[in-house]
Amino acid sequence: MTNKTLAAPQELRYARIHGLAGYRPERVVTNDEVIEFIDSSDEWIQQRSGIVTRHIAAPEESVIDMAEAASRDAITKSGVAPEQIGAVIMATVTHPYQTPAAAPELAFRLGIPDPAALDISAACAGYCYGISMANDMVRAGTVDYVLVIGVEKLSDFTDKYDRGTAFIFGDGAGAAVVGISDFQGIGPTLWGSLGDKRDLITQREPWTGLRGGMEESGRQDALDWPAFVMQGQSVFRWAVYDMVPVAVKAVEAAGITPHDLDAFVPHQANMRITDAMVKALKLPEHVPVARDIAETGNTSAASVPLAMARMLDEGEAPHGGLALQIAFGAGLVYAAQVVVMP
Ligand SMILES: CC(C)(COP(=O)(O)OP(=O)(O)OC[C@H]1O[C@@H](n2cnc3c(N)ncnc32)[C@H](O)[C@@H]1OP(=O)(O)O)[C@@H](O)C(=O)NCCC(=O)NCCS
Question: In this predicted structure, which of 30-34, 50-54, 281-285 has the lowest mean pLDDT?
Answer without folding.
Answer: 281-285
